[in-house]
Amino acid sequence: MLLRARIVLPISAPPIEDGVVLIQDGRIAEVGRSRDIELAGPEEVLDLGEVILLPGLVNAHCHLDYSAMAGRISPPREFLDWIEAIIAYKASWDYSDFAHSWVSGAGQLLKNGVTTVADMEAVPELIPECQPATPLRIHAFMELINLRKRSPGALMVEEAERTLLGHLNPRGGYGLAPHALYTASPDLLQAASVCAQSNDWPLSIHVAESRIEAEMFRDGRGLMFDWLRKNQRDMSDCGRHSPVAILEQLGLLSNHLLAVHCNYLEPGDAELLGKNQCTVVHCPQSHAYFGHADFQARELAAVGVNLCLGTDSLASTRKQRGMNPELSLYDEMRVFADNHPDFSPEEILPMATIHGALALRRANQIGEIAGRALADLQTIPYSGPLEAATQFVVHETIHSSRVMIGGHWVNPLSAAAQ
After folding, report:
1. Architecture of the domain made up of 2-55+368-417
2. CA distance 315 to 72
3. Within 13 Å, how many C-alpha atoms sit on residue 302's CB side?
4. Distance CA 301, CA 110 (A)
5. Are 309 and 295 a contacting pair, CB within 8 Å?
6. Which CATH class is domain 57-359?
7. Residue extents of the structural domains in the chain
8. Measured between alpha carbons, how far is 375 from 4 in angstroms, rounded to an integer?
9. Which residues pair with 205 in a beta bridge?
10. Model confidence pLDDT, tens digit, residues 361-392
11. Are the CB atoms for 19 and 31 separated by under 8 Å?
């Protein structure tokens, strides 16, 4: 199949006007200008017309099973209020509620141009049962929590590894997600890190997400400290270091780590993350919902951190003009651009594509239009000039008109392969 578009955005190379992409066996065989590529056989030629052709987006952090909570929890006064609210909300749901929510969220991502998602899964049964409902590339991260250390960390990780490897996931991949430093014991965190390294899986952890978390670890006091001590957590790791410094002491900082949020960093934290080639996943709409301090994007990028974008869950989003929000990395890019005008569109778009691919251990496979990459593509109607194409993608409200995964067009409205 040969696709022709007025503009092709490869991401890892400059934009191409009157571009073509040759697809063979579900992969990209060649990309270039129409006049420079000769057909070698009876390829189907499809002229996509006045569109931008770009790779499918890579969502580096999502909780699909919370998608139906969109707009249900009002922005809290304190982060701890939200934790208690979502715990109560989850307790009121049964399995079918989580399953419906998961499938709905997957459909939203596909409609909005995402072809690969890192999904943090709190309900393991959803992994084999819901994935066949979508053509998305799902990287299933098993969420792990042992707040009171009632379960040995090593045993929890072994069980999670067996569960993941026992499920065939040919389009996607696997990962482990110890929830956070305050909900996972040191032995669980270290066992998960060893497992991720040995399997070459990414490891996702919520890090320094809230002010009260940072205060708890740094000062050994505050709302979260009191709440967790009351809930029988061992608080001996508090009062000395930042969450990032604790992760370094535990040996968890590496290029396998997806440190999610990192909203409250102490001096030297960014350098630690950069030195160890860590990924930081920023979720701009969730960040705005909680009213967190300014995100240190430029400081992180300057020290070599692989900076990615994620949607987080819809349980931490506001209604928009009276309507429930959807999972959309385009919305995340637009909010990030508004909050960080010092970042150019050419810096922002890779955060939703090739940087996510690197974080998920799939560099050169997804998030770009290049030779041998998987043919995960999308089109966006566009009639403007070549030099404004990337700015249009980042700044405008967008829905994809067509989405392709592995060389096959899919229907973004029903999330079913055509």
Report:
1. Roll (2.30)
2. 7
3. 10
4. 28
5. no
6. alpha beta
7. 2-55+368-417, 57-359
8. 14
9. 259
10. 999 999 999 999 999 999 999 999 999 999 99
11. yes
Average pLDDT over residues 210-233: 95
Amino acid at position 47, single letter: D
Q: How many CA atoms lie within 13 A of 364 on its CB side?
A: 3
Q: Which residues contact 152 (CB under 8 A, 6 or more apart)?
A: 187
* Alpha carbon 208 to chain centroid, angstroms: 17
Pairing type for strands 306-309 and 279-282 reads parallel
Alpha helices, DSSP H, located in 1-92:
79-91
pTM for the model: 0.96
The encoded tokens of residue 266 equal 């102490």
Q: How many residues does the chain have?
A: 418
Cβ-contact 280, 307 below 8 angstroms:
yes
pLDDT value of position 318: 86
Give the integer Cα–Cα distance in Å for 323 and 320.
5
Q: How far apart are CA 287 and CA 372, in angstroms?
A: 36
| CA–CA distance, 242 with 222 (Å, rounded to integer) | 14
Nearest residue to 287 (alpha-carbon basis) of 61, 101, 98, 118: 61
Give me the phi and psi of 223, to 5 degrees please.
-60, -45
Contacts of 72 (CB under 8 A, 6+ apart): 89, 315
Give the model's confidence band at 292: pLDDT under 50 very low, under 70 low, under 90 confident, else very high: very high
Spell out the residues 6+ positions from residue 92 whose beta carbon is closer than 8 angstroms to its own: none
